Amino acid sequence: TVGAVAVDVEGNIACATSTGGMLNQMAGRVGDTPCVGCGGYADNKVGAVSPTGHGEAIMKVTLSRLILFHMEQGKSAEEASDLALAYMRERVGGLGGVVVVDPQGNWAARFSSLQMAWAAARQGQLHYGLYTGEHFTEPL
Amino acid sequence: MLPVLVVHGGAGHIPKERAELSCGGVMEAVRGGYSILRAGGSAMDAVVEAVTLLEDNPAYNAGRGSVLNVKGEVEMDALVMDGRTLGSGAVSAVRRVKNPVQLARLVMEKTNHLCLTAEGASQFARAMGMEEVPEESLITDYARMRWRKNLAPGANPVECQMGKMG
Fold first, then answer.
1. DSSP line for A10-48
2. Cα-flanking dihedrals φ and ψ of residue B165, to 5°?
3. A1 assigned to active site
4. A-chain residues within 8 Å CB-CB of B19?
5. Residues B39-77: pLDDT tens digits?
6. How far apart are CA B139 and CA B135, in angstroms?
7. Cβ B29 vs Cβ B50: under 8 Å
8. B71 touches chain A (CB under 8 A)
9. A48 and A40 Cβ atoms separated by less than 8 Å
10. CA B119/CA A52 separation, integer angstroms
């Protein structure tokens, strides 16, 4: 699965997610990706999320909307992501990751799986990582 | 407002030999999308461009490089959402489309619906003038190898794809 979230110069927010699904899945199986609130959500008033991971688990906890709910309650993008990913792991045993932005342009890339390839661009800096805790930067 | 773009290339188990490919692809995608934002483009244009680049990159499970279902076929899903209007468009189980994210955007912009599925989504793609591509063009040798490996009795495709706890 791949995805992106963005805030533009006018403060508008958007998300996009795309996937080939689960390896050797049943024909006709649909996961979280095309479901609003699960495979992504964007609201100029709160932020945007694009997730990846075990689709059935993501759907059971409506992961994207859950993260934005925590942000509405005052949590940062990073805190909200960690809370929701931990809940998904505890409640339904699901692993995954998310990229998140808020209307101020604060962002997060968080995951409970071993790896997630991610990259971010802001203020002329490129940020990227793959393993937990990795955060490299270089000029764009 | 300072623009920002964040992308991901999927969670789970990424073999060591594919780690560099995975990192390189998300960096290229974020550069492509961010150049749109820097030129004053919209957040929607930027996320669709970034995801299109990732769909075209065979290193990722989307578009070209998608995993195969149990029948050895490619079925893809995609979603876009606009935070200004809460407008959204999606496609599910769509086949023979090069860039499902662009089709999802057309669902949002050209229909009153949120999601089109399977053959209906393919028909809509044709009606919108999107080129139908051969299924073979979406399938990589790597995807076929993983599909074969997980046809074996006792294989665990979810474990194979998602890996262990972080």
1. TS-EEEEEEE--STTPPTT---STTSTTTS-EEETTTEE
2. -60, 145
3. yes
4. 115, 130
5. 999 999 999 999 999 999 999 999 999 999 999 999 999
6. 7
7. yes
8. yes
9. yes
10. 25
